[in-house]
């Protein structure tokens, strides 16, 4: 299996609808980003515009990553739209200016040998859709800086002064600095 569709399979005058699934290990995800835990489901349509092909679709899967506050694993549902424009690679040089003119926010990829490979567009979109703040829950209490317990699971006996919300702690530090 692969996320490749042949140009010749796409009809000239209508959309080619697809529904594909890939195993998590098909994608090389940096373990620091996380680990894919479910098949990557890609569905959508391809349509021809001359020698170009437009992709409109969606990608969904599940990624496991580490909460940046308490370091426990968390599951993140990836559900994202993916769109891209495929232009023939061998004509790329001569079409350069043309491409610049009508490219705005849509990704342009090159294809060769009549093979429309969705892998890169799908991968890029999965990575883009990851949250900046990786929290197991919005009010994750994190790890106690004094005794190291996961404060979501256990209350510790460290003094109130030392166990204030880490976000407040940042503010407090700032205040102290400004004194
Ligand atoms: Zn957490
Ligand atoms: Zn503690």
* DSSP strand tally: 8
* Chemical compounds bound to the protein: zinc ion
Task: Estimate what percentage of residues fall within beta strands.
Answer: 25-35%
Percent in helix: 10-25%
How many domain modules?
A: 2
Please mark out the parts with pLDDT under 50 across 5 or more consecutive residues, or reply none. none
- What is the alpha-carbon Rg in Å? 23 Å
Largest sheet: 6 strands, mixed
Secondary-structure element pattern, one letter each: EEEEEEHEEHH
**By helix and strand content, what is the structural category?**
alpha+beta
Number of helical regions: 3
Overall form: elongated
Average pLDDT, to the nearest integer?
A: 86
Report the span from N to C terminus.
63 Å
Key terms:
elongated, 18% helix, alpha+beta, 8 strands, binds zinc ion, 179 residues, 6-stranded mixed sheet, 3 helices
Explain what the structure shows.
The protein has 179 residues and is α+β, with helices and mostly antiparallel strands. It folds into 2 domains: 4-128, no CATH class; 141-179, no CATH class. The chain is built from 3 helices and 8 strands. The radius of gyration is 23 Å and the shape is elongated. The termini are far apart. One zinc ion binds next to loops. The site of one zinc ion has 7 residues, from loops.
């Amino acid at each position: 299996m692969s996320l490749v569709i042949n140009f010749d399979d796409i009809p000239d005058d209508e959309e080619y609808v697809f529904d594909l699934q890939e195993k998590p290990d098909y994608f090389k995800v940096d373990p620091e980003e996380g680990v894919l835990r479910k098949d990557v489901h890609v569905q959508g349509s391809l349509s021809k515009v001359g020698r170009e092909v437009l992709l409109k679709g969606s990608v969904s899967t599940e990624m496991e990553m580490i909460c940046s506050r308490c370091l426990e694993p968390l599951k993140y549902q990836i559900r994202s739209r993916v769109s891209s424009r495929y232009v023939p690679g061998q004509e790329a040089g001569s079409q350069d200016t043309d491409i610049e003119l009508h490219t705005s926010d849509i990704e342009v990829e090159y294809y060769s040998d009549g093979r429309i490979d969705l892998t890169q567009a799908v991968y890029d979109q999965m990575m883009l859709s990851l949250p900046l703040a990786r929290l197991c829950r919005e009010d994750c209490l994190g790890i106690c800086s004094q005794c190291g317990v996961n404060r979501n699971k256990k209350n510790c006996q460290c003094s109130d002064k030392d166990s204030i919300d880490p976000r407040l702690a940042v503010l407090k530090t700032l205040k102290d600095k400004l004194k």
